[in-house]
Write a structure and sequence with these properties.
With about 230 residues, this protein is of the alpha/beta class. The protein has a single domain, classed as 3-Layer(aba) Sandwich (Restriction Endonuclease), CATH 3.40.91. The protein contains five helices and eleven strands, in the order ααβββββαβαβββαββ. Strands 3-4-1-2-5-6-7-8-9 form a nine-stranded mixed β-sheet, sandwiched between helices. Strands 10-11 form a two-stranded antiparallel ribbon. Helix 1 runs antiparallel to helix 2 (about 25-45) and helix 3 packs across helix 4. The radius of gyration is 17 Å and the shape is globular. The N and C termini lie close together (about 5 Å).
Length: about 230
């Protein structure tokens, strides 16, 4: 209970920081600042072997990804390569990639789908990453889950929507894939099912951090449960 209260405090700080950036007029600057907020939220929970960065993923055949907003990677697997301060992160060390959007629109969703499609074409040596979408706001009408909107747009584009392990929109809704990587089954949380609005962000963070600790062999729980490492935050 104490852990959860402390975590709620960090989520409240994220929300407050997001609201404070509304005065920034430059969209690119605003987006980068909000990416930083997400990194700060995650950073304190990561396993010591892991780091968070922004950059380009590369595979063993030389294929490069589009620039990714938030990349979580395991330094103990393969270290990043820096060229003129631009990090090129080997895809085999990447566990999670998060696309961060200030406001989710159809065009932004199309951008995420195209980026996911390119990322999943990269060659890995069996160290599989997961792709997530986090938005601070959305132009979607209330009551329509983000993941269902995403699936509808992907269908029109002729591309897969199963790339997305988790989606979350602050104070609106959250979804996570249940089962194997190719599963189409989703659990959805919204205003009708959360206990408090911080559950959206808590579930999103838990889905990432639990997966990391599972890879390290310390814990095995479904995504979205409020458990981090050896801490039970329910």
């Amino acid at each position: 209970m104490i852990f959860r209260k402390l975590f709620d405090g960090r989520i409240d700080a994220l929300r407050s920081s997001y609201e404070s950036t509304n005065i920034i007029n430059h969209a690119g600057t605003k987006g980068k600042v909000r990416e930083l907020f997400v990194k700060q939220l995650l950073d304190g929970f990561l396993h010591p072997d892991y780091s968070i960065g922004r950059g380009i993923c590369i595979d063993r055949l030389g294929m490069q990804s589009p620039e990714c907003d938030v990349i979580i990677y395991d330094r103990s697997v393969v270290p990043p390569i820096f060229i003129s301060e631009q990090p090129f992160i080997p895809i085999d060390s990447v566990t999670d990639i998060i696309e961060v959007k200030s406001k989710l629109t159809n065009d932004e969703i199309k951008d995420c789908i195209n980026k996911a499609d390119k990322l999943y074409r990269m060659k890995t040596a069996g160290y599989f990453f997961r792709y997530h979408l986090f938005a601070f706001d959305s132009d979607l009408a209330a009551g329509v889950p983000t993941i269902k909107r995403l699936a509808a747009i992907a269908k029109v584009m002729g591309k897969s929507d199963i790339f997305f392990r988790q989606t979350a929109t602050l104070d609106r809704d959250y979804s996570c894939k249940i089962g194997e990587e190719d599963s189409i089954t989703q659990a959805i949380m919204d205003k009708d099912t959360w206990e408090n609005r911080n559950d959206i962000v808590a579930a999103f963070v838990a889905g990432i951090i639990n997966n990391i600790y599972e890879k390290k062999g310390n814990i095995k729980v479904p995504p979205g449960y409020f458990i981090f490492g050896n801490y039970d935050s329910e």
